[in-house]
Amino acid sequence: MGCTASKVEQEDTVRRCKERRRHMKDAVAARQLLASAHADYLRSLRVTAAALSRFAKGHPSLAVSHHTTPVLLSAAAPPPAPSAARALPTPAPSTAASSSLPPPTPLAQHPHPPPQPPAAMAAPQPAPARAPRPRRLRVPHILSDSSVASPARSSFRKQPPVGTPSSSSAWDWENFYPPSPPDSEFFDRRKAEVEHASRLRELEEEEKARAYLQHHTQYNLKEEDEAAEDDDGEVDHEPEGMHCGGWEDDEHYASTTTSETRSEDEGEMGDRSECGFAARSECGFVARSEYGGTAPSEYAAVPLPLRRDERSEAGDSSTVTAATEMRMVVRHRTLEEIVAAIEEYFVKAADSGNDVSELLEASRAQLDRNFRQLKKTVYHSNSVLSALSSTWTSKPPLAVRYKLDTNALEMESTEGKSHGSTLERLLAWEKKLYEEVKARESVKIEHEKKLSTLQSLEYRRRDSAKLDKTKASINRLQSLIVVTSQAATTTSSAIVRVRDNELAPQLVQLCFALLGMWRSMNHFHEIQNEIVQQVRGLVDNSMAESTSDLHRLATRDLEAAVAAWHSNFNRLIKYQRDYIRSLYGWLKLTLCQVDSSVPQEVHASMISRELTSFCDEWKQALDRLPDAVASEAIKSFVNVVHVIYTKQAEEMKIKKRAETYSKELEKKANSLRSIEKKYYQSYSMVGLGLPGSGRDGIESHAAYDARDPLAEKKTEIAQCRRKVEDEMTRHAKAVEVTRSMTLNNIQTGLPGIFQAIAGFSGTVVEALDVVCRRAGSVR
């Protein structure tokens, strides 16, 4: 039996099926590890952002020098992520995560010409032959309560809400406590009013933004042509119904940003904005931060000059071009503001990986969603509660029973399986195929033995009964060979069907999702890299401030967060390589027929061959990634933070030693004063020479000193005082060294990590973009 088993294991077909099973088993395990590493990496981005913010709040005196060059940020949204819906050779763009610095809203062409200032409209007499050069447009901040552009919103507040004759503001506290609870129609009506008001406000903002852009374009044309007749012609085309409230004689205000600001009618206290910037011609204004209040950072939207061929009257093309080419000059004032901006993009980068998390089933919600086919019955003492969801009641149940719901299974099969369940089913099929092929080969070996026995019996021509028995065994084995071969063929066909119909589109979708994630991450990391360059101009404007326990704790948390980031980054790249390598090894073996060692190029489908080539190129792209550079950059920043933490620990140790000596000095001084008060009425006069005693006075002074009972204690106090002074001096030097090293390490270490991670993400985008171009042939 052992010899037969060893022969079966040595068969090429059995060995290939065993390799296929091993590769699929490794792929299932690698997918689980990849999902875990992906979730941990996204979490580490958020944790690192929070830890870096706490660390920066502990150094409020680190300010950016006025001589530091401001950074120029692109106001455009992140590049659109490719879509795998059509899977063309060239990735199709789709919606991607938006930046916190979005461009002006693409404006539709409006039939009315841009509004003119009231001064130009109200002039009854004709203008002189050469009109004065108009002032440049200045746009106040859209979130400032004292802004001149606020009349647009105030005029909107004066409009009565639709359908509610007696409603003033959403924060009218009388409406929060009505005499009787309102019905559902009240809330539906209120919701409709809020949506209608939001649409009206968005239309006003778009109208003003379009007016600003068109007026700015016309101003550039007038500045080049120096023609005064153009100014007179624009006044005649002023629409009669255009509301120009908030325009002054010498300043034209408009808004060029899209905001999510909600007025008081919508039930929000204060203004909130995700844009964080507005355009101003003087290149500098204060923007309201997302974190509340007014951020002291300075922003300025600088539109790049349009080309001559783009300055057309079409409206749409010029507006979109101007919005796309908008740039922002950003200047932060402190380290805390720089880190706050970096933290925002860390969160956005983490959010960009949600699509990949959905595909990899990296969260508990996606795991629970796979158990919809289980019907849960909770038995309580007084009732039986049945529900499809896995939520628990407040009371502890007596028993819980699960039952398989076949209807949910059929519904799930029609809706489509998840990627994890597809791999699990392929692994089950591979195990079944291995057992069937192994059984078939063992039957074949037994059949060969029986044939040898039959040949021997026929050669000897003896024992016809044994000969007939051998022939019957051979017939039975031949039937088993047919059955086992059909079973292996059926299982192999099922594997091919799952591979071509389910696994192939899922892998293509996963590749496109990874491309979109890294493209968004590259966009956000590039912005972080530009923002963080301002730390090179940090200076310490305050006196040396000692390190507190909170500062040291924040530094320790930052070191732990960056170390976790480094570990999760390495795990993410490693498990992704292992996953694709296992899948490629399995796909390459599936090209061979179960009964033959020759690749089935003729019988293999086009999808299987293209999918194998697709995974091969994906594997090679992952192997060529320079992840070691980014990993070393993150690790070097861990070492930088560790050095800061070590210096802070040394400073704290010196500080504690100085405090100990100070307490000891105070204790000895108090003891000396108590003794002096006890044995003398006030302070001791022993050791003081009498005035005018001359030489005798000096000798008597020495005699008094020799008899002073407190001389030893005074000597100890003097020595302790010198120790305290030495420790205080040492502590002051340690504080200076710590702050200087902290500043230098931040200036050298922080830009390097973002430069490395931005470069790595850009390389990943280039590599995956080439891989995704082959996805069209797979689909």
Automatic annotation (TrEMBL):
Q: Where is the composition biased (Low complexity)?
A: 83-100, 140-154
- Where in this protein does the record put region Disordered? 74-186, 218-272
What domain of life does the native source organism fall in? Eukaryota
Domain DUF630, by residue range, is 1-59
Cross-referenced PANTHER family? BZIP DOMAIN CLASS TRANSCRIPTION FACTOR (DUF630 AND DUF632)-RELATED, PROTEIN ALTERED PHOSPHATE STARVATION RESPONSE 1
Recorded protein name is Uncharacterized protein
This protein's species is: Zea mays
InterPro entries for this protein: DUF630, DUF632
Q: What residue spans carry the Pro residues bias annotation? A: 101-118
